[in-house]
Amino acid sequence: MNLALLYIYIDYSPIKANFAKIPVMISASFITADIANSTQIFSSKEMESLAGELKSILTEGDCIYTFSRFDSFQALQRDPLKSLELIMQLRCAVRKSSSRKPDIRICLGLGMADPGVRDFTFLKDDLFVNTGREFDKMATGKQWLRIKLTEAEDQHLQPGFTASGLFLDYLFRRLTYKQSQILFELLRGHPQTVIARLQNKSLPTINKQVKALSWDNFRSLGLLYRELLQNRLQDAI
């Protein structure tokens, strides 16, 4: 699958033509996630350790979050521009945690949230309700990652974000256990020289793996997501 196909798909959607019609600001993102078959893959100690790493990533991302057991959580982030990178780190953390091919189902909702919200357990705002509904739909499908615009005024923009989510999910499905470890370090901002030292591998070996895992496509998707969202945010100002 070629990233150019994704750009073609988005360029022919009605996104740009409808920007002027959108007065609502996307002010936050809401993440709903669940690790599949966690009790079959991880021991209690392993699951607790993984949950600790996920909490650390969410804390570094300035998220408000709540966990149900150790294998499912919800998180609110105030800066939606950073949210795609955040969910990539979260999925990588799960994928690299075991050679038994664990994975996490994630729905990223983009919309509005009151700045004063500290507990979202019983809130009925569109951001929380619609993200939850979209996540429930994923239980019966084969897609492990979705990006959902939760405000009614934004639905004509949904195709671009849907395409981004589909292609990102495709890239993650192709990753091997070792590639997930390397991608995680790349997402953390480590250069290949540092990764080679951390992995106790030669630099040419790491360089080969970086190319094999399609790092350029991951980076391009991150830039495309930010561009789509920045255009949307600028229009609302």
Which secondary structure elements does this structure contain, and how are they paired or packed?
Blueprint lengths: L2 H9 L16 E8 L2 H4 L2 H17 L2 E6 L3 E6 L5 H13 L8 E8 L14 H13 L6 E5 L8 H17 L2 H11 L4 H8 L3 H10 L2 H22 L1
Parallel strand pairs: 4-5
Antiparallel strand pairs: 1-3, 1-4, 2-3
Main features:
237 residues, alpha+beta, Alpha-Beta Plaits, 5-stranded mixed sheet, 10 helices, 52% helix, 14% strand
Q: How would you summarize what this structure contains?
A:
Helices cover 52% and strands 14% of the residues.
Q: What would your notes on this structure say?
A:
There is one protein chain. This protein is an alpha+beta fold and 237 residues long. The protein has a single domain, classed as Reverse transcriptase/Diguanylate cyclase domain (Alpha-Beta Plaits). 52% of the residues lie in helices and 14% in strands. It is built from ten helices and five strands; from the N terminus they run αβααββαβαβααααα. The model is unreliable at 3-23 (pLDDT under 50).
Proportion in β-strands = 5-15%
Tally of domains: 1
Mean pLDDT: 87
Helicity, as a percent range:
40-55%
Low-confidence stretches: 3-23
CATH architecture tag? 2-Layer Sandwich
Shape: globular
Would you give the CATH topology?
Alpha-Beta Plaits
Distance between the termini: 36 Å
CATH class: Alpha Beta
Radius of gyration: 18 Å
Task: Report the order of strands and helices.
Answer: HEHHEEHEHEHHHHH
Q: Profile the largest sheet.
A: 5 strands, mixed
Give the count of helical stretches: 10
Quaternary organisation: single chain
**Neighbour order of strands in the largest sheet:** 2-3-1-4-5
